[in-house]
Amino acid sequence: MESDTPQIIIDPRKFSGQVAVITGAAQGIGEVVSALFAEQGCTVILLDINKEKLEQAEKTLRSNGASVAHRICDITNEDLVRETIDEVVRTFNKIDILAHLAGIYPAKPLLNVTTAEYRRIFQVNMESCFFLTQAVLPHMQRRHYGRIINTASQTMVRPVRGLAVYAASKGAVAAFTRATATEVGPGITANFVSPTLISTPTTQAGEYQKVLFEKVVEEQCVKRVGLARDVAHAIMYIASPEAEFITGQMFDVGGGSFFH
User: What is the pLDDT of residue 98?
Assistant: First the structure.
């Protein structure tokens, strides 16, 4: 029996004339988000630290007719972040959207986490939010328009063994984003997505991933694995002009996970 589920409509005019900066754009969710923005007419600036994958992602988008550029950027380097954002604004005149998707999620029992590992997780996941927001916000405030979108995690409310430090860093991202929303000014919003375990080449790798995904799906109302496109579609709404009255909010992308 054929499904009569309505088709998702992609409008190439949706983000026409807008400029979006996407972090973690070389692979995974960031790559899919970048492609969906580009498909809807946005000029997309891909940020990542992986030069080879970043150039390949740009090449793929460009072959599909996208308006795209890339910048290699270590988002834990405050000076480099500010220089990169300022250069993007000089080149493209503005930044309408910041979609911050870069992050790390090493799994390790709490007592085995070293101080250096703890600090690295917070540097990549939380300090980067601070650096990026401070860099883009003045440019958005001058134009009285902007969308700041960060990425948290459902581990904030559904703890997972081995991810204590990761969950803490994402809890900090959530609190920071909510507080940011109170300071951004007219025409600018700050929100965050909170995905469940999402299927990407990275998350699918590993000996125990199949069992982990099965457990996650079992606890969801929607009985399928979460995909990068699920996160991407949520971000498209948050980034849209019609979301102007929504700020400081968490967008749960978890398939209706049950909370125990």
Answer: 98
Q: Which two tokens stand for residue 152?
A: 């948290």
Domain that holds residue 167: 19-198+228-251
Q: Is residue 91 situated within a structural domain? A: yes
Task: Judge if pTM exceeds 0.90.
Answer: yes
Secondary structure of 66-84 in the HEC alphabet?
CCEEEEECCCCCHHHHHHH
44 belongs to a structural domain: yes
Give the pair of three-digit tokens for residue 168. 């803490």
- State pLDDT tens for residues 207-220: 556 767 777 777 88
Structural domains in the chain (count): 1
Query: Which tokens sit at 6?
Result: 């309505």
Does residue 250 contact residue 170 with C-beta atoms inside 8 Å? Answer: no
- 92-112 confidence digits (pLDDT tens): 999 999 999 999 888 888 999
Q: Is residue 111, in this structure, part of any structural domain at all?
A: yes
Q: In angstroms, rounded to a whole number, what is the distance separating the alpha carbons of residues 223 and 181? A: 34
The candidate with the shortest Cα–Cα distance to 217, out of 197, 231, 234, is 197
CATH of the domain at 33: 3.40.50.720
Q: 157: helix, coil or strand?
A: coil
